[in-house]
Design brief:
This protein is mostly helical. It is about 75% helix and about 0% strand. It has five helices and no strands. The two termini are about 25 Å apart. The model has no long low-confidence stretch (mean pLDDT about 90).
Length: about 80
């Protein structure tokens, strides 16, 4: 698989956006499962990080994580062409 190092930051951003936005239970459970299976970790610290925050509060951190750890910004630029 290519770019597997991007999996953790992508799952982290999806989890936090979901947690501070719609908080879809199915999405939360699937991502929690992925964290446990792929990384041997859980989402407890992410849940604490999101406590009391809105999607607007968390998006600058999410954007920074994606920019520093993935090629998502380049993808967006290429996708818009």
């Amino acid at each position: 698989m290519k770019h597997t190092k991007e999996l953790l930051p992508i799952l982290t951003t999806i989890f936090t956006i979901n947690r501070t936005g719609s908080n879809d239970t199915d999405i939360s459970l699937i991502i929690d499962y992925a964290f446990r299976r792929f990384f041997g970790a859980n989402t407890n610290l992410l849940i604490l990080t999101c406590a009391g925050k809105t999607k607007g509060d968390i998006m600058p951190e999410v954007s920074r994580l994606l920019e520093e750890e993935t090629q998502y910004k380049k993808y967006l630029e290429d996708y818009k062409k």
